[in-house]
């Protein structure tokens, strides 16, 4: 059974940082790209970033230069380092891989 479990969310002030983790199991993690998605209150699902099997990465324009995606295949875990957080980054964050999505972790940016 494929499982993706996100963690690391929380409440932070504007300008702060958070590191999200996505622990994967039930499939060959190293063979799949991993993406982070987010959904803000009242809005649709938005792609944030992807890390591919080669280690190359892509970012949405709204987070480029502030967020860094990475993966550790030995730990079956992907990460999203989020710096210089803004109020508009407030959302539920999900990781996605192998056609599945986790339950999400809430990120709230507020003063």
Features:
111 residues, mainly beta, 7-stranded mixed beta sheet, 4-stranded antiparallel beta sheet
Mean pLDDT: 98
- Share in helix: under 10%
Strand content: over 45%
Q: Spell out the helices and strands N to C.
A: EEEEEEEEEEE
User: What overall form do the CA principal axes indicate?
Assistant: globular
**Total of DSSP H or I helical runs spanning 4+ residues:** 0
- Structural class estimated from helices and strands: mainly beta
Instruction: State the end-to-end CA separation.
Output: 40 Å
Largest β-sheet summary: 7 strands, mixed
Structural summary, described in words:
- This protein has about 110 residues and is mainly beta.
- About 30% of the residues are buried.
- The radius of gyration is 13 Å and the shape is globular.
- The strands form two sheets. Strands 2, 4, 5, 6, 9, 10 and 11 form a seven-stranded mixed β-sheet that branches. Strands 1-3-8-7 form a four-stranded antiparallel β-sheet, with no helix packed on it.
- It contains no helices and eleven strands.
- The model has no long low-confidence stretch (mean pLDDT about 100).
- It has strands at about 5, 10, 20-25, 35-40, 45-50, 55-60, 65-70, 75-80, 90-95, 100, 105-110.
- Helices cover about 0% and strands about 50% of the residues.
Summarize the entry for a quick read.
With 111 residues, the protein is mostly beta strands. 0% of the residues lie in helices and 52% in strands.
Per-chain topology:
Elements: E1 3-7, E2 10-12, E3 18-25, E4 34-39, E5 45-51, E6 57-59, E7 67-72, E8 77-82, E9 91-97, E10 100-101, E11 105-109
Parallel strand pairs: 2-11
Antiparallel strand pairs: 1-3, 3-8, 4-5, 4-9, 5-6, 7-8, 9-10, 9-11
